[in-house]
Amino acid sequence: MKQLLSMILAAVAAMLLVACSKPAPIESVESLVANPERLTELRAQCKADHAKVGDDQCNAVAEATRRRFFGSGGPKHTPQAQAPAASAPAAKD
Q: What is the average pLDDT score of the chain?
C-alpha cells in the first residue's frame, strides 16, 4: 500500500512539474516575416486552436502577416516633384 501511495505521489509531482515548466519560446515577428512557409503554418494553427498556440505567438503571427502585407517601413509612394500640367480643351472658332 505504501508503495502504491508513493508511486501516486511521484506521478502527481511529475505532472505538477510539467504543468509549471516554461512555455515554449515564441517565434519572433522578424523570423516569421523572413519565413513565409512557417508563417502560413502558424496562421493555420492559430485559426484552428488559438488557445493551444497561445496569445503571444498568435499576436506575433498577426504582426508578421501585417508587415508582409503592408510593409514595415515608411511610405513607399513618393509624390512627383511637380504635377503634370493639365491640358486645356482646344477652343473652337
A: 81
How far from the centroid of its chain's Cα atoms is residue 82's Cα?
A: 41
Neighbours of 65 (CB within 10 A): 19
Farthest-apart Cα atoms in the chain, separation: 116
Per-residue pLDDT, 93: 59
In eight-state DSSP terms, residue 80 is: -
The secondary structure of residue 73, as a DSSP letter, is S
DSSP assignment of 10-67 equals HHHHHHHHHHTSPPPPPPPHHHHHH-HHHHHHHHHHHHH-HHHH-HHHHHHHHHHHHH
28 vs 35: CA distance, rounded Å:
11
Q: pLDDT category, 90, cuts 50, 70, 90? A: low
* Alpha carbons 52 and 70: distance in angstroms, whole number: 28
Mean pLDDT of 68-84: 70
pLDDT at residue 5 in the model:
74
